[in-house]
From TrEMBL:
This is Protein ECERIFERUM 26-like. GO terms for molecular function: acyltransferase activity, transferring groups other than amino-acyl groups. Keywords: Acyltransferase, Transferase. The keyword Cell membrane does not apply. Pfam families: Transferase. Residues 239-253 have a biased composition (Low complexity). Residues 221-238 have a biased composition (Pro residues).
Length: 473
């Protein structure tokens, strides 16, 4: 039985992702889709320390599709909103924790009387559903892509801008925004709570839905015994005080103030979206630079951004502030099994420019530092940073952060009824003042896309600096 509930959520125009002029995204209409089967009574999905390490961060994924051509290939066609929604019911049977809501464990009865901190978060698999957002844009896809190529940051309004909280039990873990362009094109934007999985986990989940929407048969239902698919609960331990900060870490930083149940990173700067495309020709030119042999595209593109941003921030922060950067390398999740492919198994480390200031360093030298960065599993980082449930921490943006998501678009393509997206962008939202950039293969493998969040005033200057550097490459 199809169940659809229309809901209304308040929010400022900025929170709803409204743009300007003909590029404005408007008419947001929200509804909810739930699994087609009842998960069960009191089924809980336990979050690991690596999951909770990322609770303040969000994955944003946008796929833009042109309207089908008049002479489209057989089977290639546009899908209606209803046709996009219907496969979500069996899809959510497969990934039922995504439809749940966050709760906190009750404190032990023998806890200190003055210790009233909330307990460890977990996901109650209560089938509350994912939120679907229908919106419209008065531009054509071609107009939108021209604007994106010129100034970047255009994907942000195509994915619903909402964080978890301040009431955990009302907050969806996933928003899916369907934006219709006036030419008949469409954008699919996903806002995914990082606490339930990293970028490859999210991409694999979205690609599974696209396969179902394209007519592929869903696997047999898995919910007859959902508890058999879930990881065991963590061992019991005395609850930690909420005031106890995590131990220091080179890649994790405590928030400036506790966030409670409103999972948004407090920052001293307004953080705004940034995106940039490095063409295949420009990437080849970078790889021909002296010293660049054997260094991958991620390192070269990130090094270019590192050097340019260090020069921009030198007057405000000084040279030392950008000497250390965080490096995140993604790994492909194991689909199925006890974690359902929902994991935060990427690796985290850092690179330090110990010689010349990054703004004056050679790009190939910075790329070599990034390539040699020592990274470790997110679980090990969480263990060294202290109990992730005991305090609020920032990973992305604790320092300037570069995320290697190179093959995620190719490994988990989102194709709908024979249609491939003209533009794909993965980014991380909810980042600290250091900013973060995700680097991945562009749609159809044409160069590299760089996307993320930077401080207000930086994106335009950085785009100009990157264009100059690539022109000289």
């Amino acid at each position: 039985m199809v169940v659809e509930a229309v809901v209304v959520e308040s929010g400022s125009p900025a929170a709803l992702g409204v743009g300007a002029g003909s590029m404005a995204v408007h008419g947001h209409r929200l509804s909810t889709v739930v699994p087609s089967s009842v998960t069960g009574e009191s089924v809980d999905y336990e979050l690991t320390d690596a999951d909770l390490l990322h609770k303040l961060h969000y994955v944003r994924a946008v796929h833009v599709f042109r309207a089908p051509a008049a002479a489209a290939a057989p089977g290639e066609r546009a899908l209606s909103v209803r046709e996009l929604k219907e496969p979500m019911f069996p899809w959510l049977d497969m990934f039922f924790p995504v439809s749940g809501r966050l709760r906190r464990r009750q404190q032990q009865q023998d806890a200190a009387a003055d210790d009233e901190a909330a307990g460890r978060p977990f996901v109650r698999c209560n089938d509350c559903g994912v939120r679907i957002v229908e919106a419209a844009c008065d531009a054509t896809v071609e107009q939108w892509m021209e604007a994106e190529a010129e100034r970047g940051g255009m994907c942000k309004p195509l994915a619903y801008d909402k964080v978890i909280g301040p009431e955990l039990f009302f907050s969806p873990l996933l928003y899916v925004q369907i934006t219709s362009f006036k030419c008949g094109g469409m954008a699919l934007g996903f806002t995914w709570a990082h606490v339930i999985g990293d970028i490859p986990s999210a991409a694999a989940c979205f690609a599974t839905w696209a396969q179902l929407a394209s007519g592929n048969k869903a696997p047999p239902p898995t919910l007859r015994d959902p508890l058999s698919l879930l990881p065991p609960p963590p061992p019991a331990a005395p609850p930690a005080r909420a005031t106890a900060p995590p131990a220091p870490s080179s890649v994790v930083k405590a928030t400036s103030a506790p966030v409670g149940d409103h999972w948004a990173v407090p920052t001293a700067h307004d953080m705004v979206p940034f995106s940039f495309h490095v063409t295949e020709q420009q990437l080849n030119a970078l790889q021909q630079r002296p010293g660049a042999a054997g260094v991958g595209p991620f390192e070269l593109v990130s090094a270019l951004v590192w050097r340019a941003l260090a020069a921009i921030r030198a007057s405000e922060d000084g040279d030392e502030a950008t000497r250390t950067v965080t490096v995140v390398r993604t790994t492909q999740p194991a689909v199925g099994g006890r974690r359902l492919g929902l994991t935060n198994e990427h690796r985290i480390g850092h690179a330090v420019a110990s010689g010349s200031p990054p703004a004056a360093a050679d790009v190939a030298a910075l790329a070599a530092l990034l390539a040699g960065a020592r990274v470790e599993d997110a679980g090990a980082v969480a263990a060294r940073a202290g109990d992730a449930a005991a305090g609020d921490v920032v990973v992305y943006g604790a320092s300037l952060t570069f995320v290697d998501a190179g093959g995620v678009v190719e490994a988990h393509p989102l194709e709908l009824a024979g249609r491939r997206p003209a533009h794909v962008e993965y980014a991380v939202d909810g980042v600290g003042d250091g900013g973060a950039a995700v680097v991945h293969a562009a749609a159809r493998g044409r160069g590299r896309t760089v996307a993320g969040s930077l401080r207000q005033g930086e994106p335009g200057r950085l785009r100009a600096a990157l264009r100059d550097a690539l022109r000289a490459a």
